[in-house]
Write a structure and sequence with these properties.
Radius of gyration: 14 Å
Largest sheet: none
Order of helices and strands: HHHHHH
Mean pLDDT: 83
Strand content: under 5%
Structural class: mainly alpha
Shape: globular
Number of helices: 6
């Protein structure tokens, strides 16, 4: 189950991610929003110790392919969004007290549960 603060964080970053899309990206706006939500969950979960992040991201690409036919470039763009979001999250929440505070808001078990939910193919509440 996705924690409410994760959804709020995703909303805050969605604008940043949407504007970070390459100019020639052909992903539909809705798919960019889905990707933003999944990228936020991925970045903060990894930052706070969740495992299987790579599988989560691969599972998301499969999900995205059900929403829109994806080219290899589209898949690369999606992985780029995941990478930029992770970089941005680590910059916004530096190591130390700020990160400890961020990671204490949602338990590691809840974060891992959300990652496992995405891996299982259930993206409701994560990406949409």
């Amino acid at each position: 189950m996705v924690h409410r603060s994760a959804i709020i964080a995703a909303s805050a970053f969605a604008v940043v991610i949407a504007t970070a899309m390459p100019a020639d990206a052909k992903l539909k706006r809705k798919l960019v929003r889905y990707t933003a939500g999944a990228a936020i969950v991925s970045a903060f979960s990894e930052m706070c110790g969740a495992k299987r992040i790579g599988q989560f991201q691969e599972s998301f690409i499969v999900f995205a392919g059900t929403k829109q036919k994806l080219t290899d470039k589209d898949k690369t763009d999606i992985m780029g969004i995941f990478a930029r979001t992770k970089k941005d999250a680590y910059e916004r929440v530096p190591a130390g007290a700020a990160r400890k505070d961020q990671c204490s808001k949602i338990s590691k078990a809840e974060r891992q549960e959300t990652i496992d939910q995405g891996i299982s193919g259930n993206w409701k509440g994560i990406a949409y």
